[in-house]
Design a protein that fits this description.
- The protein is mainly alpha-helical and 124 residues long.
- It contains six helices and no strands.
- The two termini are 20 Å apart.
- It is globular.
- It has one domain.
- Helix 2 packs across helix 4 and helix 4 runs antiparallel to helix 6 (113-123).
């Protein structure tokens, strides 16, 4: 499997170190961690195989889908680009900025605009 690195070797080592120092991680953090290490975003996610759950309407890969949605919601383009949505646009920018700052603290690398775009493009 060929890895697709989007960060430098020093950043990679910093991400590994920061990840090991934290014991609890969300599903969206696993998605980002996989992408930063050059792995497919779905690595580590297993589909639901319980026939009863599936028969009752559970979606096999829902955890992965929801985690990807959370990441793309903040790292993707601003959906509020029409006139009259300036308050929504500002709220989205503030939420995206807070998300990136949180991820910078979590992973030990700066989540600047360039890195956020790279992560988003991998998920598209």
């Amino acid at each position: 499997m060929e890895k697709n690195f989007i960060i430098s070797k020093d950043q990679y080592l910093e991400v590994i170190k920061a990840w090991r120092e934290t014991k609890h991680h969300t599903a969206s953090e696993h998605i980002i961690y996989n992408i930063l290490r050059g792995y497919p975003s779905s690595r580590g996610f297993t589909p639901i195989t319980n026939k009863i759950k599936l028969a009752n309407g559970a979606q096999a890969d829902l955890a992965e889908i929801n985690a990807e949605r959370e990441v793309t919601r903040y790292l993707g383009p601003n959906p509020y680009s029409h006139p009259g949505q300036s308050q929504d646009r500002l709220a989205h920018v503030a939420a995206a900025s807070a998300f990136c700052e949180q991820q910078s603290n979590r992973f030990g690398v700066l989540f600047n605009n360039e890195l956020c775009i790279k992560i988003y493009e991998v998920l598209k």
